[in-house]
Amino acid sequence: MSATEKKPIEKVMIICAKGTIEDVYASLVMANGAVMEGIETKMFFTFFGLDAITKKTMHKLHTGTVGNPAMRMPGGLPFPTLLGALPGVEAGVSAMMRKQMAALDIPTVDEFLEMITAGGGEIYACKLAMDMFKLKKNDLHEEVLDVLTIGQFYEKADGDRTQIIFT
Amino acid sequence: METKLIAGVNVNLSEDGYMTDSSQWNKEIAKELAKELNIELTETHFQLLNYLREKYADGEVLTIRKVGKSGIVDIKGLYKLFPGGPLKYSSKIAGIQKPTSCV
Predict the structure, then answer these.
(1) Which residues of B touch A107 (CB under 8 A)?
(2) Residue-wise pLDDT tens digits, A114-147
(3) Is 0.90 surpassed by the pTM of this model?
(4) Structural domain range at position B81
(5) What values do phi and psi take at B87, rounded to 5?
(6) Are A14 and A165 a contacting pair, CB within 8 Å?
(7) Alpha-carbon gap, residue B72 to B48, rounded angstroms
(8) pLDDT tens digits, residue range A59-95?
(9) pLDDT above 70: percentage of residues in chain A
(10) Predicted confidence (pLDDT) per residue in B15-24, tens digit
């Protein structure tokens, strides 16, 4: 065994706690990418991240137009925070972003979930956050395997080469 | 780049083992490449390999989503055919370059 032997990741646990388009997609792309690389993958959606697996909200994710210094106008000019605060602006920008993603052939949220589970990935929801938001298992997309406590999720993180990623 | 004798042909390979000249490919080479990945090729495998080669020749960027809509297999089926590397392993066996997409 040489000192330069590579030790690939064998399992990733990805926790998604936010419900903006960019946070949810970062988690989904990482999870799907891991599954495609043959890495055992488990996702845990908590707090506002639950929006991504709730049937009613999963297709209406928004990106924040207030307090986001990286936000730009289509031409590249800075996007004033005050403009982002106007009614309807956030919805418009978010719709534009989703349209742009569809044009690049990026899957929708539910399709992404199906791709991840098709490859053997597992999707979980956080029990505490479910109780807080008064959600039932029925409110969640059918690809969600189970509702877990954080302790149960950690129990699944066994193995030497496991990484936990929080987005 | 290196060359390796596979099924009687001197095949050009990239550092990570992908064929750099897809015109050298034939079914016997595919079988040998698949064997290295512990995959036994079936008729469905070959249908899919041909599909990948056609799309590749057209310059399309391949994703598992696209393959899932090919009408040959769905995404679940693709994972069954090429366990642990649906796009990577299938591309390798199809004699095309390593996939460059993130989805």
Answers:
(1) 65, 103
(2) 999 999 999 999 999 999 999 999 999 999 999 9
(3) yes
(4) 2-93
(5) -95, -40
(6) yes
(7) 7
(8) 999 999 998 889 998 899 999 999 999 999 999 999 9
(9) 98
(10) 999 999 999 9
Dist. CA B14–CA A113, nearest whole Å: 33
Residue boundaries of the structural domains of chain A? 11-62+80-166
What are the angstrom distances between the C-alpha of B31 and each of B14, B28, B54, B98?
Answer: 18, 5, 19, 18
Pairing of strands A11-16, A162-166: parallel
Q: Domain A11-62+80-166, CATH 3.40.50.1000 — does that match?
A: no
Residue B21 within a domain: yes
Q: Find all residues with CB under 8 Å of A134, minimum gap 6, and list them.
A: none
Nearest C-alpha of chain A: how many angstroms from B20? 21
Q: How far is A136 from chain B (nearest CA, A)?
A: 28
Number of domains in chain B: 1
B7 assigned to active site:
no
Q: What is the rounded distance in angstroms from the CA atom of residue A60 to the CA atom of residue A105?
A: 18
Interface predicted TM-score of the whole assembly (ipTM), two decimals: 0.91
Residue with tokens 């800075």, as numbered in its chain: A78
Residue B102 falls within a domain, yes or no?
Answer: no
